[in-house]
Amino acid sequence: MRREQQKEVRRRAILHSAETLVRETHSVDFSMIDLGKRAGLSTATTYNLIGSKATVLYTLLNQSLSRLFEQSRLAYRGNDPIEHILMAADVAARFFTADPNFYKPMMMFLLGVPDPVHRPQFMQMAFNYWADAVEELATALKTSEPVEAADIALNCHILFAGALDLWVQNELDNAQFQAQVHHSVAIQLVFLANKRVQNRLLKSIRETRAQLPPLARRSEAAAQ
Question: Of 5, 123, 150, 153, which is least surrounded by CB within 10 A?
Answer without folding.
Answer: 5
